User: Fold this.
Amino acid sequence: MALSLGRLLDRARGAREVLPHLAALERGLLTSGSTAIDHIPKHWLGRIASQLASLPLPDEEAPLHELLRRLSAQLDDGTIDGQEPSQHGSFDPERTVVIREISHSEFMAEAEAQATTMPLPLRDRAADQPR
Assistant:
């Protein structure tokens, strides 16, 4: 798989720079063999599979087709780094964004709390202006 992926990436100059996830997969396959696929974090599996699927895979390169099949299977099986779904849970604060609507006063209070400098109240600004 590593040799076939390497030949595919060698076909276009700069392919490893443009497709860094595939280049990392190639290095992983060279050092760890096909077990490297089992250690790819779930959030990168989709990107790697998508990059590989977007390339013209030659029919005679069966290892590339097998690699794509295994990446897709790993992506679909519901595991993350060998853990069952019940072990990793669905909420990851590093990758979850919560959006909610707030009132204008809540927004202004948060904006003031985040500000490093506070503007003068309007009545104080008027006193500072030359007449």
